[in-house]
C-alpha cells in the first residue's frame, strides 16, 4: 500500500476544489432573483476555478515520484467523543485525481454548453445552482478519505440528480421520473449504509486507510458481506441490474444534465466505489464474481434496450447502462481490470457527454423533439453536430484509433483472459453497441428527411458547438493518450494495483474477433435502417425481443413482480402483524403512557397549595433517600 | 471563621475586591441602576430609546469586560466568588443569551404599535383604567432594568463560591423574574396568577435552601465550598446535619432548574408569563442554576459523592420521564415547551451524575444548545397569532408549513434540535452527556434517558407533522411579520443550532477547556 502524506504547498488547495462550486451553489440558490442576470456566469466561473485548481494539483502530483503522490488534507474533527471520532478529511491520490479532472473538465464544458442550451429558460439560475451543487457533491464523493464522508457526497449527488431530473416541474412525467430515481437509489443506499455499519462494527473505523489495513484480518464472510453491500450501492447509483430502471426515465431532465450526471460522472460513481474498495474486493472472490455477473447482464440488457428505443436520449441512456456494464465487468476482474475500467470510464466521459450534447443540439434545432423516426438527413443542416456526433459514434463502437478502441478492447481482452464465456458475452455486447449506435446515427443524420412540418432545423450557437468540438477531440484522442506507453497503468498502479492479463488467445486475435462483431453490427444496421425506409410510426407487429426491448426488457414489470408486489404483500402482511401484534404492544405502551399522562395531569391542579405540598413531599423523599443511602 | 481577625482590632475590614474580574457583574448592575434613573427622570417618549442604549450597551460592555478580564483561575472577593472556566463560560453564555432574548423584548411590530408587556401592571385587569391606557398605546419600559437586575444575579449564581453569596445571587436573579412573569399585556389574569405562584413557591424553595445552608454551617463551621469539602473529608461526626443540609440545598436548586418533583410551577409560569420573558428565563435561569448546582455538588459535596449520587440519579430519571410523559398530552404550545424544558433538566442531570470533567464539558455544551433552541422556539411562538393574541392551542398550528414555510421550517429546526436529531446542536449535546454518564458507569440512567428521548421524539415530531402534513382547521391563525430585532434574534438562534450541529467539535472543545472547577 502506498503511503499517504499530509497536504502541503499546492496540495493544501484541495479543499478549494469543493469549496468553489459549493459557494456557487449557495450563492445561486440563496440569493433569489438578484443574481438572475449573471448567475449562470458565476456558475461557469466557479467550475472554471475548480478546473484550474485541479490542473495545478495534477501538475503538482506529476512532479512527485509515483508512490508519494497520495496526500491527505485534514479539515476538521466533526465529533470526538472518545471511542466515537469522525474526522472530515480529503484524500487526493491518483484515482481521485483522474475523477477530479474528468468531473471539472467535462463539467466545465457542459456548464458552458448549458449557457446556450438553457437560454430563455426562466429557471436558468436555479438550474446552474443545482449543477454547481452536483459538482461540489461529486467532488466530495471522489475526494473523501472515509466511507462516511463519501456517503455524504453520495447522497449529495443523489439529491442534485433528483432535483435536476425533476427540473421541468410543469411536465407531468418529470416528477414521477425524479421520484423513481429517488426511490430506486434509496434501495442502493441501504447497501451503502449497511456496508458502513458493518465496517464500523468489524474494524471500528470507516476511513479508507483504516478499513483497508484491517480488512485482511477480518473473516471472509464479513469481507464478502461488505463487498456485496457495496455492490448493491454501486448498482443503485450506476443503474446496474437489478436497479437499472430509473436511468431511462431520468432522461426527463434537461439534456446537459443527462450528459453530465447521467452519462459522464454520477453514474460512474459505482465504478469508483468498487475501484476504490479494491482491497476489500480482492479479498472477496464471491463478491467479485457478483460484480462480473451484474456487469455482464447490464451490458447486454442495456444494448438490447438501446437497440429498440426511438427516443434518441433513451437510446443513449441504454447505451450508457451498457457502457457502465463494461466498466463493472472490468472492476470485477480485479487487478487485471481496474485500470482498464478507469480508462474506459474516462474515455466514455468524453464521447458519451459529446453524444448527449449532440443529441441536445439536435433537439435544440428540432423543437425539443426526441423521436428519431421523425429525424433523418440532418447532416445537411447541422454539419458540426453531425461531425462531432459521428466521431463520438465511431469512438464508442471501438473503431481504431479512436478512444473506444484503445479502452473497451482491453476490457474484452482481460475478460477473455479470465474466461472465454465472459469474454464471448462481452464481444456480443460490442456487436450490439455497433448496431444500436449505427442505428441512432443513421436514423438521425443520414437517410431521408422525415421531419414534422413545423420544424426548421439549424446549427446551434457557438457556446454549444465549442464544447461539442472539444469533447469530440477528446473522443478521438483520449484513448491513445491514456494508453500510450501504459500511461494510465503507471499512474493508477499505486492505488489499484495492476496485473497484465494473460489469456490463451493473443491480443491481436481478440481484437480481430471484436472488430468482426462490430462489423456485423454495422452491416445489420445498414441493412435495416439505410437500405430500407424507416417508418415514421413505430411498427406494431414486431418480434417479441423488440417488444421486450421497447419495454426496457420488462424492467418495470420485473420490478413490479419481484420487488413491488412481494413488497406490497410483505408490507400488507407486516401491516397486519403490525396492527395486531406490534401495534398492540406499541399502542398499548402509547395508550398507557397517554393514560398515565392524562391521569398524572390531575396532580397538576393549578393550586399553589397543592404544589407546595408536592414540593414538601419531594423534600421528604429527598431526605429519606439520603438517609437510606447515608450511613 | 470569616474575616474576624480584622474586626478584633476595632476596624471594619476593607475587603479586597478584584474589580477587573467582577466587572461584568458590576457593569450589568450599573446598567440596571441607570435604567431605573431613566425610568424616573426621562419623559415617557424618550425612555424606550434610552433603555435600549443602556440595556444593550451594558450587555455589550459587560461581554467586552468579561473578554478582557483574563483567565487566570483563582478565588476572588475574599473567597466569595470563584473565577474559573465554568464561571467564565457560563457568564459569557448568560450575557449572550440575554442579549438575544432582550432583542425579542423590543418587538413592537408583531402586535402593531405595542410590545408584549402590560401598559400598567398595577391596573386591575379588565378595568376602565386599563382600557384607556391600552387605547392610548401607553407602553412601559420598566422590563429592561428589571431584567438587567436579574441578569446580574444570574452572572453571580454560577460563580458563587460560598453559600451566602449563592443565596444572595439566587434572590437577586429570582425577585425581578417574579415581577416580570406578571407583566403580560394579554391574558393578564393568567399572567398575574403565574407571578404570584412563582413568587410563593420560589420563596418556599429559597427557605429550603437557606435552612439547608444553616445546617451545613452547623456541620462544617463555614459557608465556603472548599472548607465544606475539607470538613466532609476529615470529620466523621454529625453526619445527619450534613445529609439534611445537602438534601435541603438540593431542593432549593432543583426547584430552580425545574427538576421533578419540584417542577410543578414550570408549566404554569411558562404559560402565564409574557412569551418573551419565558424565552429569557427558560434559557438563562437554567444556565445559571445548573452552573450553581454543578459547582456546589462537585466542589463542596464532591468528597461525599456516594451519599448524594443515588439521589441525583433518581431525580434525573424521574425528571426525564415526568417531562416527556406530561408533554405527551399537552394541547398548549407553551406548556408543551415547558415540559420539554423539564425533560431537558433531566437530561442535563445525567451529566451531573457523570461526575467527571467530561461531564462538566458536556453540560456546558448542552446548555449552549438548549439555550439557543429554547429562545428560538419561544420566539417563534410569539409570531403565530390569532385574534386574541398568540395562538396558543396546538390546533392553530396545523398547516402552518403551507402558509409560512419559513417560520415552520425554523420552528422545526428548533424542535429537531431539542429532540436531538443529528446535524442540529441537540444531537452532539445529548450524545455528550449520555456518553459521559455511561463512561462513569451510570448505564441504567442512560437507558432511561434514551427511552425518554424516544418518547420526547414523539411530541416534537408531532408538531412538525401538524405543521407540514395537516390541513389547517380554520383561517384565523396568522403569522406576524417580526421586527428586525426579532428576526436577528431568531437568525442567531438558528445559526448557532446549525453550526453546532454541523461542526460540534468547535463548541465541544471550548466547553471542554472551560470545564475545570477551581476548588
Automatic annotation (TrEMBL), chain A:
What's one GO BP annotation on this UniProt entry? ATP synthesis coupled electron transport
Please give the start and end residues of each transmembrane region: 12-29, 41-59, 95-115, 127-144, 150-169, 190-212, 218-236, 257-275, 287-308, 315-333, 339-360, 381-401, 421-442, 462-483, 503-530, 611-630
Location(s), subcellular: Membrane
- On whether Coiled coil is a keyword of this UniProt record, the answer is no
Q: Which InterPro entries match?
A: NADHpl_OxRdtase_5_subgr (IPR018393), ND/Mrp_TM (IPR001750), NU5C-like (IPR003945), Proton_antipo_N (IPR001516)
- Domain (NADH:quinone oxidoreductase/Mrp antiporter transmembrane): residue spans on this chain: 144-433
Cellular component GO terms, alphabetically?
membrane
Topology versus the membrane, per the UniProt entry? Answer: Multi-pass membrane protein
One MF term in the entry's GO annotations: NADH dehydrogenase (ubiquinone) activity
Domain NADH-Ubiquinone oxidoreductase (complex I) chain 5 N-terminal: residue ranges:
78-128
Q: Name one Pfam family in it.
A: Proton_antipo_M
User: What keywords are annotated for this sequence in UniProt?
Assistant: Membrane, Transmembrane, Transmembrane helix
Where this protein primarily resides, as one coarse class? membrane
Descriptive protein name? Unannotated protein
What is the organism lineage in this UniProt record? unclassified sequences, metagenomes, ecological metagenomes
Automatic annotation (TrEMBL), chain B:
One of the entry's Gene Ontology molecular-function terms is: NADH dehydrogenase (ubiquinone) activity
The UniProt keyword set, sorted, is: Membrane, Transmembrane, Transmembrane helix
Q: How does it sit in the membrane?
A: Multi-pass membrane protein
Give residue ranges for domain NADH:quinone oxidoreductase/Mrp antiporter transmembrane: 160-455
Q: Subcellular location, in the record's words?
A: Membrane
Q: Which GO terms describe its cellular component?
A: membrane
- What are the TM regions of this chain, as residue ranges? 22-42, 49-69, 89-106, 143-160, 166-184, 196-220, 240-263, 275-301, 307-329, 336-357, 363-384, 405-424, 444-469, 481-503
Coiled-coil stretches, from where to where? none
GO terms (BP aspect): ATP synthesis coupled electron transport
Put simply, this protein is called: Unannotated protein
